[in-house]
Write a structure and sequence with these properties.
The chain has 12 helices and 18 strands. By secondary structure, the chain is α/β, with parallel strands linked by helices. The strands form 2 sheets. Strands 1, 11, 12, 13, 14, 15, 16, 17 and 18 form a 9-stranded mixed beta sheet that branches. An 8-stranded parallel β-barrel has the order 2-3-4-5-6-8-9-10, surrounded by 5 helices. The N and C termini lie far apart (61 Å). It has 2 domains: 22-264, Alanine racemase (TIM Barrel); 269-380, Lyase, Ornithine Decarboxylase, Chain A, domain 1 (Beta Barrel). The chain has helices at residues 3-13, 22-35, 54-62, 72-80, 97-105, 115-124, 162-172, 190-204, 232-250, 262-265, 298-302, 389-393; strands spanning 17-21, 42-47, 66-69, 88-90, 109-112, 129-135, 157-158, 175-180, 212-214, 255-258, 269-280, 285-289, 308-310, 318-324, 332-340, 347-350, 371-376, 379-384. The modification N6-(pyridoxal phosphate)lysine is found at residue 49. This is Diaminopimelate decarboxylase. Homodimer. Pfam families: Orn_Arg_deC_N, Orn_DAP_Arg_deC.
C-alpha cells in the first residue's frame, strides 16, 4: 500500500484506524506453502489470536487455511466465519474440562497440554481423536512473555513426563492422532527450531496411530528497515527433508502442520493516528497522538519497535520525537525516534500492526476501540466500525434502586 491510499482511508473512515492489506496476507500464505512444497501433506492453520476479525478469517479460509484456536470463543468465531469443524484446531491452556467438553461437542480437533485433563478426558472420551502438546524444553522467542517452550513454561506436557503420558494413554485406550509443540514467537535461529523438531520426532515414536505432527510457528518477521527475519525458505528446505525421512521411519505419510499468526498478518497491518499536539519540554519533543496503549499495547508490553512514518509529510526534514499516547499514565510508542518533521494534524503510520495489535486493544480510560479496514483490490472495505458511546454502555446495568443517603 502507498501513503496516499492510507491518507485517503484515514479521511474516509476516521482515525485512529487499523488497515490490513489483503494482498500481503495472501502472499505470505503462498510463501509459506511454497517453502514446504516438498512435503506431500502440508496444512496451515492460522493462529487467529493474532487478529480475529471475521473478514480476515474468511479471507484465509478462501486460500485453504485451517484455524488454530485457543478458546471456545475463537472456535465459535471460526465456525461463524464458515470453517468446517475438522479444519479447526483447539489448543487451550489452563481451561476447565467443561470447556473442552463443550468444544469437543462442536467436532473440532482437541489438543491437550496437561496430564490431569488428559487423563480425565481420556477416561470419559477414549474414542475421541486427541492431539497432545509437548513442551520440548527449548528456550526460543524474542521476549520472555512469548517464549513458551522452556522448562519453566506453563504450556505443554514436559517431554520428560513422556513415560507418565504414555501410561495414561495405554490405561485409557485414548486415540492419539497428533503431537504438537510451540517453542515461542520471533524465532530467528532455524537450528533451534530444527533441534526442537528432533525432540518432537522422538516423542512421536511412542504413538502408533498418528496422523499429523504440528510444529507450531513463531517465525520472526521484520519490524524495521533492514531488520532480520526467519529464513522460511531455508527452514522449509531442511525441515521438509527431515520430515519426509521421519515419515519413512515411522512407516506412514503424516501431515505436517504449522500454525502461523504473526507471519501471515503482521506486515499486512497499518495503524493510523492523528497528531493532537507537538509538545517541547526542556529535553524532549513529544508528538502526542489520538491513541494510546489501549489501541496498541505491544511497545509498552513487549518493548516492541514499530516503524513510524509521518505519511502527511514523508519527505520533510527528519527530527527526533518521542511519540506518546493520550492515556493517563506513561504511554510511549517510541523514544527519540527520527521521523519526518511532525506538525499538529499530521497522520502517523505505525507499520507491522497486523498481529497482536487490535486483538489486544481495550477500552482503558473508557476510550473507544478503533475501526478496521481491509484493503482489497484497490479499495478499502470497512470490516469493523468505530465504537460509540452506546458500545461502552452495552452490558452495563445501572443500579435498580435509589442509592440510600448516609
Amino acid at each position: 500500500m502507498q501513503s496516499k491510499d492510507l491518507l485517503q482511508l484515514a479521511e474516509q473512515f476516521g482515525n485512529p484506524l487499523y488497515v490490513y492489506d489483503a494482498e500481503k496476507i495472501q502472499s505470505q500464505y503462498n510463501r509459506l506453502s511454497k517453502a514446504f512444497s516438498k512435503v506431500n501433506k502440508l496444512r496451515i492453520n492460522y493462529a487467529m489470536k493474532a487478529l480475529s476479525n471475521v473478514a480476515i478469517l474468511q479471507l484465509l479460509k478462501e486460500m485453504g487455511s485451517g484455524l488454530d484456536t485457543v478458546s471456545i470463543q475463537e472456535v465459535m468465531l471460526g465456525l461463524h466465519a464458515g470453517y468446517e469443524p475438522e479444519k479447526i484446531f483447539y489448543t487451550p491452556n489452563g481451561v476447565s474440562l467443561e470447556e473442552i467438553e463443550e468444544v469437543n461437542a462442536m467436532g473440532v480437533q482437541i489438543n491437550i497440554d496437561n496430564l490431569s485433563i488428559l487423563e480425565q478426558f481420556g477416561t470419559k472420551y477414549p474414542d475421541v481423536p486427541v492431539c497432545i502438546r509437548i513442551n520440548p524444553h527449548v528456550m526460543a522467542g524474542g521476549n520472555a512473555n512469548i517464549s513458551v517452550g522452556h522448562i519453566d513454561s506453563k504450556f505443554g506436557i514436559s517431554v520428560h513426563q513422556l513415560p507418565h503420558l504414555v501410561r495414561i494413554v495405554e490405561n485409557t485406550k485414548m486415540n492419539i492422532v497428533g503431537i504438537h509443540m510451540h517453542t515461542g514467537s520471533d524465532i530467528l535461529d532455524i537450528e533451534v527450531f530444527l533441534y526442537a523438531a528432533e525432540i518432537l520426532f522422538d516423542a512421536a515414536k511412542n504413538f502408533k496411530n498418528l496422523e499429523f505432527l504440528d510444529f507450531g510457528s513463531g517465525f520472526k518477521v521484520p519490524y524495521k528497515k533492514d531488520d532480520i527475519e526467519t529464513d522460511i525458505e531455508e527452514l522449509g528446505k531442511k525441515l521438509s527433508k527431515r520430515f519426509n525421512a521421519f515419515c519413512v521411519e515411522y512407516g506412514k505419510e503424516l501431515t505436517l502442520i504449522f500454525e502461523p499468526g504473526k507471519f501471515l498478518v503482521s506486515e499486512a497491518g497499518f495503524f493510523l493516528a492523528k497528531v493532537n499536539v507537538v509538545k517541547q519540554t526542556t529535553s524532549t519533543v513529544f508528538a502526542g497522538i489520538d491513541s494510546g496503549f489501549n489501541h496498541l499495547i505491544r511497545p509498552m508490553f513487549y518493548g516492541s519497535q514499530h516503524h513510524i512514518e509521518n505519511i502527511s509529510h514523508p519527505k520533510g526534514k527528519e527530527r527526533f520525537y518521542s511519540v506518546v499516547g493520550y492515556i493517563c499514565e506513561t504511554d510511549t510508542f517510541a523514544n527519540n525516534r527520527r521521523i519526518s518533521e511532525i506538525k499538529e494534524g499530521d497522520i502517523l503510520c505505525f507499520r507491522n500492526a497486523g498481529a497482536y495489535c487490535f486483538s489486544m486493544a481495550s477500552n482503558y480510560n473508557s476510550r473507544y476501540k478503533p475501526a478496521e479496514v481491509l484493503w482489497m483490490n484497490g479499495e478499502g472495505h470497512l470490516i469493523r466500525a468505530h465504537e460509540t458511546f452506546e458500545d461502552l454502555l452495552k452490558n452495563q446495568i445501572p443500579l435498580p434502586v435509589a442509592i440510600p443517603t448516609v
